[in-house]
Amino acid sequence: MKEMTYKDAINLAMSEEMRKDKNVIFMGEDIGVYGGAFGVSVGMFEEFGEERVKDTPISEAVIVGAAAGAAATGLRPICEMMFMDFITIAMDNLVNQAAKMRYMFGGKAKVPMTLRLPSGSGTGAAAQHTQSLEAWLCHVPGLKVVTASSPAEAKGLLKAAIRDDNPVCFVEHKLLYKMKGEVPVDDEYVLPLGQSYVRKEGTDVTIVTYGTILHRVLEVVEEVEKEGISVEVVDPRTLYPMETQTIVDSVKKTGRAIVVHEAAKTGGLGGEIAAMISESEAFDYLDAPVLRVCGLDTPIPYNRNLEAAVVPSVEAIKEAIYKVMNRK
Amino acid sequence: MATEIIMPKAGMDMVEGTVIKWLVKEGDKVDTGDPILEILTDKVNMEVEAETTGTILKILAEEGEVLPVMTVIGYMGEEGDDVPDGPATTKEEVVKAKEDTGAVSKKSETTVPQKQETTTQELDPIAGDKVRATPAARYLARERDIPLGRVTGSGPKGRIQKVDVETFKALRATPLAAKIAKVEGVELDAVEGTGHGGKITKEDVVSGLKKETPAAETTATTAAVEEGKDQKIIPMKGIRKIIADRMIESQHTAATVSLTIEVDMTASIDLRSKIKDMLQEEKGVKITYTDLLIMAVTKSLVKYPLVNATMTEEGILVNDHVNMGIAVGLDSGLMVPVINNTEKMNLTQIVESRSDIVGRTVKGKIKPNELQGSTFTISNLGMFDTVSFTSIINQPNSAILSVGAILERMRVVEGKPEVRNVMNLTITLDHRVMDGVEGAKFLQYLKGLLEEPTRMLL
């Protein structure tokens, strides 16, 4: 175990996999000499050279298209979008090519590529550099979508993503990059994809959440515990294909569920998770409606105060907990 | 021209009414508003009033007839007015009410004026379909057989939540009474409701409080408690109070006689040890002596059905099936779950039913309807080394069997002393229902079955 930041954990996961397997390559805008827009890949260019750590033109279509082709022909590319928002430009190559190749070639082709996507608000980067678009990706059969909320998870899950033979979109919330935590330096520390995780145990309410907002939820949970409300926090980690039994079991235990995410409410994963809960065997255990606490359906404002106002606040999370607990 | 008297439609969902009683006869003069007959709707008894002043010319509907609403049931008007010959109603529609409509209940205190067009839509407490309740509350209500319509919801807009069902008392309380009870920590199910339909009112809770804490609180006992701190007073409420009330009631109503017989259990012990492992392997259940007793007692009850009878207000009901109550002592109090129709069961089914129902009683997963409807009860204290005892009859049963421990004792067999396993059985019977000799014969027959258990196969 070693204390390091989330971005160093990602750097370590990529480096370990690149040392292990010469087919793993890394490409993106300014990831080489410059070390990445968020400094994630500092030192990798020096270690692995220009062959395997490729600076690309400013064209997400090229990055993802090249990665899909490289993956189908035997390499295991990792590529970085400078911001998740620009996945829009790569959408055709990602959705119509990478996600469908294995299926349309009758399983004869594999597409082992990993797409790293810095997401989310909180940096004052305005509406085109702050979105959380994971729900778009979950809607495409053939893509896996993963997100990690701590340095150790980032390392373990990213390694699993790189080793996976399918396109995996790895969503990294920008605010987490500087977060510190104990990370196993063991080369074989891999967290399996498709496994939800009870982050904290509780008895009265289940909150399903992921990413940066999970830490805000944990703060709120600590506060309401003092008022005698015990909250269980479940982090799905793999957003697609999501392992639902852990969530269902938790809701069966608590009888109440809230989904919290930063992404806009309409069409977000919250609706998906809420529907899954009410379709499941947990239905008969529900003692309150399943609530969603999500971002507003607005572009993310540039102004810092407004930016903070459009994502779930401590108060909004608390209010939802009181509501399902029928407390004022 | 005569005016029709009709079966009124006294509510949105009323489709038919029963003529209970005519309060007038043909030829009587009545004023507007005078009650002329009493009818029964599906909800209440009500009086129908005369709409005009005049004379009752003809009565068409007989008392006890069930008729669709708006049916002409008679005519009134001026004497000499023409009355249509035939009844205006097609007689096929008329259904004779069953003789035994116990439904002719107490006359309700409110009389609904005739032809009142609407009544407030009452929720059907059984349907539970228009009730706002969470899935968890519905699930629990189904589990416990609680009509959701009678539960008061504490959630938003009166939504019933799980906790409301958990704390539901079959006796409804007024909101004020419930509040006082909550503040004072009174168990509502121990309070007798005196309000409308057994509703618990504020007065009921308050008077209960007075009983619990008599004004003369400074009695020696309380003083002792305060000084001697280590003394504990268990309040008479909840299940403790229910048990107390029922036992006293049973003692007051039944005329009890107890008879004891000694049974040689050697053969039964043999039989049990022979089949114990088979049953464990085949069905994964453990056979107990209680199971053998259930079987033998059931067969004896079929032979002596009076012992299996139920006291009712009309008389002694001789049951044609055996519903066996098994007394289960829990820390929280005595409970008697019931195994229905044991006369139709083989030994395996008895063992399975007993272990299921007793197991769930111990775990607190028993449903209220599984604690009702026994025709006979067995109480076994053998496992506590009790040699012999008598029980209080579990009303409305007519008898109860008390089972003691199986003990090794010297007995004289064919003139020689031998060590035998013996057990005392005591039947406590209600002398109102049967005489002692009936109980004695029952015991003798039961003893025979247990001493030669192969007979149970016959």
UniProtKB/TrEMBL annotation, chain B:
Polar residues biased stretches: 110-121
GO molecular function: acyltransferase activity
Organism annotation: Alkalibacter rhizosphaerae
Matches recorded under Gene3D superfamilies: 2.40.50.100, Chloramphenicol acetyltransferase-like domain, E3-binding domain
Biased composition (Basic and acidic residues): 95-109
GO cellular component: pyruvate dehydrogenase complex
Record keywords: Acyltransferase, Lipoyl, Transferase
One GO biological process term: pyruvate decarboxylation to acetyl-CoA
EC number(s) recorded for this UniProt protein: 2.3.1.-
Region listing for Disordered, in residue ranges: 95-121
Residues annotated as transmembrane: none
Name under which the protein is recorded: Dihydrolipoamide acetyltransferase component of pyruvate dehydrogenase complex
Enzyme class of the recorded protein, top EC level: transferase
